[in-house]
Amino acid sequence: MSVLGILSYTLEVPDIEEGVRFYENAGLISDVEGDVARLRCRGQDRDVIVLLGNRPAKRLHHVSLRADGLSMIERVVPEHGGALVATPEGASDSGLWVTDPHGMLLHLSDAPADPEPAAAPPFEINAPGRLVRKGRSAMLASEFYSAVVPLRLGHVLVFSPDVPASVRFATEALGMGLADHAKDVLAFCCARRNSDHHVLAFAKSPAVGFHHASFQVNDPDDVGRGGRALVEKTGRGDWGFGRHTIGSNFFHYIQDPWGSWFEYYSDIDHIEDYAMWKPTNYELKDSLANWGPSVPDDFVHNYEAIPTFDRLPRQMNDQTNARTPKD
Known about the structure:
- This is VOC domain-containing protein.
- The chain is α+β, with helices and mostly antiparallel strands.
- The chain has helices at 16-25, 70-76, 163-173, 220-234, 315-321; strands spanning 2-12, 29-33, 36-40, 49-52, 59-68, 83-84, 96-99, 105-109, 152-160, 177-182, 186-190, 193-196, 200-204, 209-216, 238-243, 250-255, 261-266, 270-273, 280-281.
- It has a single domain, classed as Roll (2,3-Dihydroxybiphenyl 1,2-Dioxygenase, domain 1).
- Helices cover 15% and strands 33% of the residues.
């Protein structure tokens, strides 16, 4: 009985065309029918994002997770503060629909694993005493590079009013593992076998909400190239290029039309067997980045709970920015 990975997330949004335009600019393929938009990564035959349009405001509708042992999960969810719920209108009636102790809706299904992606060319770095690339340039002229496209959805981070309680539900009811956390402010949960460092993560906020989704690309060059291109196409705010301490991945975040975030990432930690992994409780100064630009003031603001940003101090932002020189 356990979650095996992330499948997709669904958002309610006011303007579906604006959302489709943003995600197409990010490299996803869309299929729009009325007030529903479905988006997928190139080469995949399933949705990774669903947008439900013509809604009053942007809101997280649900997160879909791949899992086994659904009958066991169905039995233990109520014991851990969750609830079994009816299939939402218009949604798939396969699998299991549940809410966590804070009312966040989750869809669990015994879906097949995605095919393994083709191996990318190695990202080679010449270092002192370790010359792995000789007699040739690492970089081509920019005209030779095609647009960066996401390979797969890696993880989703959601807001939670009680991060430890969310972790207990994820680990005890859904069979996930706590990979790492930063006090009671951030926590990262993984599958117990062959997992990215995190599949589902939580950030402290007054209410449930969607913070960001993270999409894998080939290497750090694609993270930087893809992020910069999306900023230029959309004119939206961003955070990156940088590298996380927790998870180790290179990142570039671009703010979406509703104040939440889209992340390109590469080189995330891999947990082959959770029994061999020891979670770390990090200080807040390492909760967001090991290095990178100053964190945007509203990076950890939940616009679903508080529609306007009040610019009150944010402890994570303050401590992270204290380690990064201001522009």
